[in-house]
Amino acid sequence: MIELDKHLIKKPENNHRVQRPTQTGFSSPATHYSEPRIDLNEVLVSNSSSTFFIRVIDNSFKENNVLSNDVLIVDKSLSPKIGQLVVATVDDSFKIIKIDSASNTELNIWGVITYIIKPVL
Amino acid sequence: MIALVDCNSFYASCEQVFRPDLINKPVVVLSNNDGCIIAANKQAKALADIPMFQPVFKIKKLLDDNNVSYFSSNYTLYSDMSRRVMDTLMMFSPRVEEYSIDESFVDLSSMHNANYDTIAHTIKNTVEKNTGIPVGVGIAKTKSLSKLANKYAKKIAANNNVYVVDTEQKRQYLLKNLKVKDIWGIGKKHAIRLQDKNVNTALDFANMPVAWVRKEMTVIGERLWRELNNVPCLELETVTNAKKGIGTAKSFGFKLTEFSLIEEACSFYVAEVADLLRQQQSLASQIEISLETNQHSAIDKQYRNKIILNLDTPTDSTIKLTKVALKGLQQIFKPGYRYKKVGVNLVHLVHKNEVQTNLFYNPHKSESDAITKLMDNLNGKYGKNKIKLATVGNRSKEWALIKEHRSPRFTTQWGELLTIGG
């Protein structure tokens, strides 16, 4: 299952240098338009110093549409709003909880789930 | 004003972030070489009969009987968590000095007329929320005072891990409530001599005549004395521009006198910076090696030196860089000193594709390039430092390690992520 994710999630590249093959004929009309390729981190990880990844290992949270082998992206810097999913510590272990108006204010929130990466193959 | 932000029981706290079952429980972290306890959290320290620096096999039963959780050092995790804390501090100021893995000085001089109490609490709460690592914050006009403020913040529970020296009254109060031996940079020997002269509190020291301090404790003692009297003498040492050079200069954690051990540490750091160099597709033309004793210690003999060595041709080969670095280290190493840190700095970097060729530069891949590439591939596949040069040594567990009680590298390896389930 870990193998699968290696293909789904590419490690971030440290530099955005655009590779230019040696060109022998006419110069490319696109030369001045090249840009770094889309980087998922730009969108999925807005605050990298407070963002953590957690792997779901069974289907105990399926009522929130979180299934085994999903990877949660969790931002600890956020404060949850109603309707959002959080990772909280309950009885010494991590649980996924949906915040609603009835949620306990004493809830020990570890972080707010911002994205869920789902393998679909 | 300068803030000193210090993580509480940093190694144990890193482990606890990912283990909610260990919150408020005793946790110790072991060294990798001989299995001694090198770090313990508050709850573990409270168990008075757990001795620090004891081989763990001797006290295993004691640990188990007291429900103490123990971990092998997971420096990969600690280093990433440390960077997260550092990055969070950068939100408050662009000038942050990473003093050690769990302590940073933050320059707050850009905040004028600020309420420093509010700032201190905001820094503390933000770091704790964003990273899960609890910290203490001391704020004062000088580095030495902020260090003392931090110490005092932790000492008295009512301070809530925060102490701000923004008035003369608070400075006096702080110094009066700390002993001479608590002062950052005053060694045991000087502390005893001062006590003999009836200088007991930090305030007594700050009120000594400066001439006496200079005569008896050299310029280092005088600098300290001035700092405690609100005159900044120690500059913030922020990281050099990463584009011009890649470097690392870390304290050993304990003083080293043996050349062979310093050589190992140096080789390890060269491998580390060379790896960064290759990641950014650069070659280094020069390497700078520095070696220094603890400049803040008033008892140790002081020595620091630096050497810059040219490489025949710009290179990113760990093998070539290590060879040259160790040659340089040999030249600046003097026996008989207790060294605190070695620095490795790669300078005059050029991009791989922009190297100027010369008569002797062979653009074809050399043998050592191929070896370096192979090492990188193997290390990438099987984990950091699986393959290394012999100079890094097998005793280099101080600098890198893997052990049976090590927690997963939650934040750097896809295969070792934190897991959640029913």
UniProtKB/TrEMBL annotation, chain A:
<feature type="domain" description="Peptidase S24/S26A/S26B/S26C">
    <location>
        <begin position="23"/>
        <end position="96"/>
    </location>
</feature>
<protein>
    <submittedName>
        <fullName>DNA polymerase V</fullName>
    </submittedName>
</protein>
<feature type="region of interest" description="Disordered">
    <location>
        <begin position="11"/>
        <end position="31"/>
    </location>
</feature>
<feature type="compositionally biased region" description="Polar residues">
    <location>
        <begin position="20"/>
        <end position="31"/>
    </location>
</feature>
<dbReference type="InterPro" id="IPR015927">
    <property type="entry name" value="Peptidase_S24_S26A/B/C"/>
</dbReference>
<dbReference type="Pfam" id="PF00717">
    <property type="entry name" value="Peptidase_S24"/>
</dbReference>
<dbReference type="InterPro" id="IPR036286">
    <property type="entry name" value="LexA/Signal_pep-like_sf"/>
</dbReference>
From TrEMBL, chain B:
<dbReference type="Pfam" id="PF11799">
    <property type="entry name" value="IMS_C"/>
</dbReference>
<comment type="similarity">
    <text>Belongs to the DNA polymerase type-Y family.</text>
</comment>
<dbReference type="GO" id="GO:0003684">
    <property type="term" value="F:damaged DNA binding"/>
</dbReference>
<feature type="domain" description="UmuC">
    <location>
        <begin position="2"/>
        <end position="187"/>
    </location>
</feature>
<protein>
    <submittedName>
        <fullName>DNA polymerase V</fullName>
    </submittedName>
</protein>
<dbReference type="GO" id="GO:0042276">
    <property type="term" value="P:error-prone translesion synthesis"/>
</dbReference>
<dbReference type="GO" id="GO:0009432">
    <property type="term" value="P:SOS response"/>
</dbReference>
<keyword id="KW-0742">SOS response</keyword>
<dbReference type="InterPro" id="IPR017961">
    <property type="entry name" value="DNA_pol_Y-fam_little_finger"/>
</dbReference>
<keyword id="KW-0227">DNA damage</keyword>
<dbReference type="Pfam" id="PF00817">
    <property type="entry name" value="IMS"/>
</dbReference>
<keyword id="KW-0234">DNA repair</keyword>
<dbReference type="Pfam" id="PF13438">
    <property type="entry name" value="DUF4113"/>
</dbReference>
<dbReference type="InterPro" id="IPR043502">
    <property type="entry name" value="DNA/RNA_pol_sf"/>
</dbReference>
<keyword id="KW-0741">SOS mutagenesis</keyword>
<dbReference type="GO" id="GO:0003887">
    <property type="term" value="F:DNA-directed DNA polymerase activity"/>
</dbReference>
<dbReference type="InterPro" id="IPR043128">
    <property type="entry name" value="Rev_trsase/Diguanyl_cyclase"/>
</dbReference>
<dbReference type="GO" id="GO:0006281">
    <property type="term" value="P:DNA repair"/>
</dbReference>
<dbReference type="InterPro" id="IPR050116">
    <property type="entry name" value="DNA_polymerase-Y"/>
</dbReference>
<dbReference type="InterPro" id="IPR025188">
    <property type="entry name" value="DUF4113"/>
</dbReference>
<dbReference type="GO" id="GO:0005829">
    <property type="term" value="C:cytosol"/>
</dbReference>
<dbReference type="InterPro" id="IPR036775">
    <property type="entry name" value="DNA_pol_Y-fam_lit_finger_sf"/>
</dbReference>
